[in-house]
Amino acid sequence: MFSRTRTSRTSFRANLKNLTLTLRRTYWQPFENITGTLQTLVGLSFSGAIGLTFLLLGCALEQYGVYWPMFVLIFYVLSPIPTFISRRLSDDSDSSSNACRELAYFLTTGIVVSAFGLPIVLARINTIQWGACGLVMTGNAVIFLTILGFFVVFGGGDDFSWEQW
Predict the structure, then answer these.
(1) Positions in the chain short of pLDDT 70
(2) Which terms does the UniProt entry file under GO BP (predicted)?
(3) Cα–Cα distance between 51 and 69 in angstroms, integer?
(4) Is 7 a member of any domain?
(5) Which residue range(s) make up the domain with 112?
């Protein structure tokens, strides 16, 4: 009697294990890539929130209290636009560099440098304090690294690319 119970327990465990593997393959496997994508989106949004927090701290702290550095938000919006346009217009069949993509990189670099230069110019003419300039530049670094991370993660031609937007 003891061996019969033990045999039924092992067969029950084996059946349960097979059922678990079947359910995992059937229902969970299609969502594995979505789960990674969702984690990436959450991470990118969290880093973007940290960057905006630094920007707002540089503007809203009581000892600073000047909101001129908020104009870097314009650069955050403008920076991905040349790359969006160049990837839409250029062919990916040519593996060497093309003029459209190089122009987009040049314009994006100009926008990013301008976003870092604006707080320095504002601090040099004493419109903002140097501490606010440091916070805004930290926020710039975090935001632009977040934008770069977005292009690195979603820049491919897979199902979850930004090209579908």
Answers:
(1) 1-10, 21, 23-35, 91-97, 156-165
(2) late endosome to vacuole transport via multivesicular body sorting pathway; negative regulation of growth hormone receptor signaling pathway
(3) 13
(4) no
(5) 35-164
